[in-house]
Amino acid sequence: MSTTEPAVELHGITKRFPGVVANHDIDITVAAGTVHAIVGENGAGKSTLMKILYGMQRPDEGTIKVNGEVADLHSPSDAIARGIGMVHQHFMLADNLTVLENVVLGAERLHGIGGGARRRIREISDQYGLGVEPDRLVEDLGVGARQRVEILKVLYRGARILILDEPTAVLVPQEVDELFANLEDLKREGLTVIFISHKLDEVLKVADAITVIRRGTTVASADPKEVSARQLAELMVGSELPVPELRESTVTDVPVLTMENVTVRDATGRAVVDGVSLTIHEGEILGIAGVEGNGQAELVEAIMGMLPAESGVIRLGGEDLSGRSTRRRREMGVGFIPEDRHRHGLLLESPLWENRVLGHQTRSPNVKGILIDRAGARRDTERIVEEYDVRTPGIDVSADSLSGGNQQKLIVGREMSGNPKLLIAAHPTRGVDVGAQAAIWDHLRRARAEGLAVLLISADLDELIGMSDTLRVILRGRLVGEADPATITPDELGSLMTGAAEGSVA
Amino acid sequence: MIANLLAKSYARTAVAALVALVFAIVVTSIVLSVSGFNPPSTFQAMFDFGKEPDSVVNTVNRAAAYYLSALAVAIGFRMNLFNIGVDGQYRLAAMLAAAAGGAWALPPGLRQVVIILVAVVVGGAWAGIAAILKVTRGVSEVISTIMLNFIGTGVIAFLLSPNRLAAKVAGSNNIGTKPIGSSGRVPGISYPGSDLKIYGLVLLAVLAGLGFWFVINRTRFGFDLRATGLSQSAAVASGVDAKRMVVIAMVLSGAVAGLVGMPQLLGGSYSYSLDFPTGIGFTGIGIALLGRNNPVGIAFASLLWAFLDQSSQILEFNDIPKEIVAITQAAVLLSVVVVYEIVNRVGRRMDQRRVAAELGEAAA
């Protein structure tokens, strides 16, 4: 194979969806035998671009060249035929089948389903140092091993160009290092890797070349040897980054939320929240750090009354919350910015003013007696749109016609209404643009200064460290450590989160 | 222009229903042609018969029962509850209400109210069984309400026997409950040109429709109900007690189902006998679907359905099988579901595009 031709050339790619242009004028050249990173914020258009390259979407304009030849990709099988393979962020493996069965599924013609296939899998595994055992059940494999099976699946189908979509999102740091070693092996064998990520440290570590995407178009190419993570981040967002930080402490000694030894079990009896005790005071933001899925969601749901606590006490301003419904808790002054705003925060098909009522349907200005006060709710929605800078043509449009950032600002505005005492903010700036992020941080700071107690859960470590007065670390449902946000670095916090370092860093 | 037309959800409903109706007429025409009949003259005959005064009265009376049945179904639908048991609920309710009305000689006015209350309570209680099973044992209401229909049929057969709540109707093999005396009847409304009367309790259907609209759109309870239907997870996070809502909505649905038989019972037959109409609960499911669970939409859908039922009776005089109308009804129903989905998607996409355009956001 010729190494002089670029492996992939994208030229002038434009893709329109109803109402939005997902990609426009994308130009990327990926040299063969390199790891090429494509970075951009959530919603910048990375995923659409990769779907185009993998034949899942067709571009409205532009050309794709693979190994120097113009390629017209109608479906993933066209892409596979040209040697392009994709490893999805979410694994597509059948747990109850063996590795062998998963790999040959859909590719039975290549080497059969028996000995030939097994031999080929061993060959590939050895060649690239993947360490995949064909006869193990997938359900017995860890996350890192499953990812290697996905990579092997793609190689088995003859791919020479691999697209990895956010491959490190599900890995712990040690597994990330293993993955990067595998990528080196692939590169050495002459394969090309397109690596999509928004984790800039990792990108700088592994990539030979970087392309930055912002608002659907390529805005810069960068050499990983010459650019810093911060410069890259500013290229990604196109402006100076807002900095999450708190000024002088406003923490008082008046407790708002007190949890004592709270335990929540899932349906199988496993303790998903295990003996958690914490106190949040007026004017305090308490951040919970942790790898996702370590009990944060259940902790929040227990406080909200959506999930019953098996034992322990939860108090709001001295009043025991046990036995009180979610509605009662909200009425007592708990605001809730949910992690998944589409599932838990909005009625997507309903107009904005009805979404203003949601969660506040027993309180003024939304109701009068048992009736919905439409005029009052509409007026207050106008106020939120104004004060929280929700970009919308009106309050009668449905919630799903707004962008994610504007949906989130509406939710923040709504949950700050009615003078809450406690705000539960789960990933308040996830998937929103930089402008909305800065605005949401401002609102949190202002409310904190006015005495609000905030429980902040976030996967963004800079946000956690910058916006918290107190930091606690959650691991497998237990609060395992405490950190001082004034002194801790994201790296140190990261190792606390994975349990690599026990105890407190203070 | 089309964008403006599709901006409002009721306009989307109307457009979808019209397209579906046209489609159904086309399908029916094809079937008629293939079977060797002339479509225009067939439709003409149906229309001519349907607009005769007697037909109009029958259509309105029939539509009232359909309307109440569809409202009952729609209450469940609005929060994704599938009450297939309206049929059993209204029959059991009508039977017990008829028995109570025949047995208790109360003063006029009170007697009608009590009969209707008995029907409402019986319907609600019968539906409540399914609700309790759902919230305590996780039994799907689809299964339990279907089973309760059968049980209801059995209970009615048991009670409707001469030793229990029924008596032989003089001069026939029919058996029925003791007729409700004149003090318990609701007078009908005359219609010019017809000796038949429009049931007085047709007005009850109108009131139920207004009540439905008001409760769903203007009250806190209605908001909770709609929110639960649109997104149960968001409703629960907002503080709605999902189990409580299931019980209330199901009982309410059953209570309205209890009203289905009332216009005819108090306005025409005065007793529940073996020939009391059956199957209205199932028809109501289709009508609720056609009317998009909206009280105005359901009103049009009920009238259309009743009109087709009534006007089809002329077909047999022309040697055309009247089942042809079932094809029309089925085609309307199937196509309205598809068309509404398309119209709704197009409309919402247009909404999103309009919002993006007004904000001048070229790229996301």
From TrEMBL, chain A:
Keywords: ATP-binding, Nucleotide-binding, Repeat, Transport
CDD domains: ABC_Carb_Monos_I (cd03216), ABC_Carb_Monos_II (cd03215)
Gene3D superfamilies xref list: P-loop containing nucleotide triphosphate hydrolases
Segments traversing the membrane: none
Database matches in Pfam families: ABC_tran
InterPro entries: AAA+_ATPase, ABC_carbohydrate_import_ATPase, ABC_transporter-like_ATP-bd, ABC_transporter-like_CS, P-loop_NTPase
Domain ABC transporter: 8-240, 257-501
Molecular function via GO: ATP binding
Name of the protein in question: ABC transporter ATP-binding protein
UniProtKB/TrEMBL annotation, chain B:
Localization: Cell membrane
Recorded topology in the membrane: Multi-pass membrane protein
Pfam families the record matches: BPD_transp_2
Keyword annotations: Cell membrane, Membrane, Transmembrane, Transmembrane helix
Domain of life from the UniProt record: Bacteria
Keyword ATP-binding belongs to the record: no
Transmembrane annotation, as ranges: 12-37, 64-83, 90-107, 113-135, 142-160, 198-216, 246-266, 324-343
Stated name of the protein: ABC transporter permease
Taxonomic lineage: Bacteria, Bacillati, Actinomycetota, Actinomycetes, Streptosporangiales
